[in-house]
Amino acid sequence: MPPWRLEAAAENLLGTGDLATFDGAEITISLASVIERGGKRAARSTLADAHRQTAELMREGRQLDILAEVARRYLDAAAAHALAALLREDLTQRERLLQAALQRRRAGIEQEAAPLSADAQRARTAAELEQSVRRAQHARQRLAVLWGSTAADFSIVPADFDQLPPVPSYQRVAGLLADTPELKWFAHESRLREARLQLARTSSIADIDWQVGVRRLESGSDFGLVGSISIPLGSAARADSGIRAADAELAAIAFEREGRERILQSTLVEAWAQIDLATTQAQRIDREVIPALNRAAEAAERSYRAGASSLLEWNQMQVEIVAARRERLDAALTAYRGLIELQRLTGQTFSVGTPQAGGATP
User: Fold this and answer.
1) What is the residue-averaged pLDDT of the chain?
2) Helices H, strands E: what count in the chain?
3) Is 304 inside any structural domain?
4) What is the torsion angle, in degrees rounded to the nearest 10, for the CA atoms of residue 65, residue 194, residue 179 and residue 346?
5) Domain tally for the chain?
6) Which H or E run includes 49?
7) 26 domain-assigned
8) Is residue 209 within a helix (H) or strand (E), and if so which, with residue range?
């Protein structure tokens, strides 16, 4: 029987045995182990815990990224539906303009170009509405992809973009940044590198290998006790390069964290400013621009029906109203996108409520 087979059989028999050798009629059965010195086992346990905590933080950060992407795609779908609703209202107004021009043309007090121009504007709005409906469908498909579906066989709950997101205090938001998973990762990474350094330091202390066994002598049926102890030399020299490398990695984590924190703070300022500027713009449009344009459009309609002005003036007012309402919708979308980014950065939820004018100055 080959020696390695006898070794395997003996090892299985003993359970914790290391060796069993066979050489003619001589058999040696021994137990061996290593006495670890310098806290190697504790250092390995600490390193494993640090790896687990780091993986958990990476999972939390990934969850925030996925939730933010879901929110962005839902916002795109809701925005497409809101734009389609706006264009439907515009189409209704275009049809009113066309009917008014046709009535005046039949009465002989309007040129032929006026109803033709109104009809062209109506057709153009109808085409844009159709494109908006298609974009809404595509946005729902992109949203469905996130949960593994290929069919957008669901409807989007209409979003109330008249309600603007809050503008939280910048100091409050900046204070939450330190507790984000991304910066917490650096704290755990620092502990991880400390554990690596400690493990590298323990390797400078040599372990003790010991072995004890029983040998059956070839000459007879006598048995002898055998044993050995070995301590490798030069462990400190071999471990020195690993210690220096681990120490350098630990020292670098502080610079890495500072650089990443500056990037996150810059992104946070941009997101906060985006919400503040967009909500301020939307509020001004609501308060001043749209009411003034509505009054001007009503006056232009009365003037046209009375024959005191041309269709061009009424049409221009309708164009201005639609442009202002689209600008208002874009401002609301910009504010909500900034809010999503704030929530992704801080890991906190800022509920939508009554907007605070202006916000706080960073």
Assistant:
1) 76
2) 8, 4
3) yes
4) -20
5) 1
6) helix 40-106
7) no
8) strand 208-216
